[in-house]
Amino acid sequence: MARPSVFLKIPKERVGALIGPEGRTKKSIEEKLSVELKIESETGDVTLMLAENANDPSLLFKAKDIVTAIGRGFSPEHAFRLIRDEESIVDVIDLRTIFGRSESDIKRIKGRIIGMNGKTRKIIEELTDANICIYGHTVSIIGNIEQAQAAREAIQMLINGSQHSTVYRFLHKKRRELKKKMLELWEKPPEE
Question: What is the dihedral of CA 34, 45, 98, 80, to 10 degrees?
């Protein structure tokens, strides 16, 4: 029986990050998720296959998310959050779908999202507890569903032209809502 596999392409300049020093990152992904990675360094083509002894096909999709995250500019340490935190997802916003091939618009929006000396990106990360990476023509987010959704909304506001102060207010409000929700989970009395 053929083993389940997934194919994806990452930028050639990210292949080194995927393999890691002395192949450690690749080996770590393979060991932790029971998959095999075949990486074509010249093209950036990556084939993921479930290992012979693996019995959980969902691991293939988790491995695909990690390879995608590394390909979209995240460090392997940030990408491994997808393993450490079961609820974490990777969300990729392709700016070409919004601005077409207009390099100047994409560059301008990336600048708005990053902010002066990385301030805006840092604030979005701190207030949502998500990790954000701006690379090439994409903006990628790693976090749980609520964190990723809040970060995506903030980024979408910046793309749509909202002022930074408006986005910061939105994020502070969202953070209060998320904290309140977490407190409510802790304070619920046990059901009898």
Answer: 30
Which of helix, strand or coil describes residue 73? coil
Query: Domain holding 11: CATH number?
Result: 3.30.1370.10
User: Cβ neighbours of residue 66 under 8 Å, at least 6 residues apart?
Assistant: 29, 33, 79, 80, 82, 83, 90
**Domain co-membership, 165 together with 179:** yes
For 122-172, write each residue's pLDDT tens digit: 999 999 999 999 999 999 999 999 999 999 999 999 999 999 999 999 999
Give yes or no for a contact between 140 and 90, defined as CB atoms under 8 angstroms apart. Answer: yes
The per-residue pLDDT for range 32-72, each reduced to its tens digit, is: 999 999 999 999 999 999 988 877 888 899 999 999 999 99
Q: Which of 38, 28, 133, 37 is nearest to 84 (CA)?
A: 28
